[in-house]
Amino acid sequence: MSVRISLAPLAAAVAEAGGVGTIGAMCLPPDELRDNIRQARSLTQGVVGVNIMYAGSAFNQLLEVCIEEAVDYVAIGAGFARGPFKLLHQANIPGFAIISSVKAASLACRTQGITGVVVESGTAGGHLGPKDPEVTIWELFPPVLEELQKRSFSGPVIAAGGLADRQDMLRALDMGADGVQLGTRFAMTEESSASSAMKKAWQEATGSQVQWWSPTGFASRSIVPHPEGQLPQVSVNGTRCYQCLKRCAHHDDPTQSHCIRQALLNSWQGDIEHGLVFSGARVGDMTDIPSAAEVMARLTTGS
Ligand SMILES: Cc1cc2nc3c(=O)[nH]c(=O)nc-3n(C[C@H](O)[C@H](O)[C@H](O)COP(=O)(O)O)c2cc1C
Fold first, then answer.
1. Is 199 in the pocket of ligand 1 (CB under 6 A)?
2. 198 C-alpha vs ligand 1 centroid, how far in Å?
């Protein structure tokens, strides 16, 4: 989870508790990603991977770091291309594609190097892939799985988006998922690098809503103090452009959109009034900030 939410402490804690820990690489300078990978490795022998958004302008450099550091896996979202998966395949690193449609499932089956897929629904926190951003994992997963099976996809298929607890996890496994990916639940942990203001906002939130105005061109889901259709109050004019995305509406016209990186960084720095707090649809069902190990124990043993 980006920007700066899932770094070495959270990824290592999840991995140490038997899960798959993921460092969110979007908007990290490549050297900082390298430091985080090494720090996580120093904290755990468990499985630690990296999530990179293809839409990011530093995508190639971040992928290079992952390959040089021989991370345990790489998940690629917000766009799709064959080249990166080929590179991962050559480096013997499992590559996961984050997909949100039957069409993307079909494409994934025809792409060398895709070892597994994460099927992410519209009820997930963050940027959303599905055409219908309200589609639940219970609606999206079965037809996507059917397509993958029809095309003899043999890798793990992970369900994500709107999963909050063990009951959800068991339901997803029952539906045929090989595993689950939870975002908001782990953003709301002690080891998450989110600001205390973000953690408080998640704790107090009763739900999340879809915004259509991300400069990335994707819809996104968050709890925000901004009503639908309004930009976060990050200076639309005058925000310096970080050139962080390959295509960005704010870069093209700073008067028409906001800087997504600044909006996320503001929240990370504690100023949620001028930022975005990405969040899944089930945020209202989570009120505490436990350790990542505690979350893992609740998921795996029900204790
Ligand atoms: C704060 C936050 C940041 C996120 N950042 C990313 C990201 O950088 N890349 C990505 O592929 N998904 C990102 N996501 C989506 C998560 O990886 C995960 O798939 C999603 O949160 C699952 O839905 P849930 O929050 O309902 O569990 C983010 C989610 C949250 C809540």
1. no
2. 14
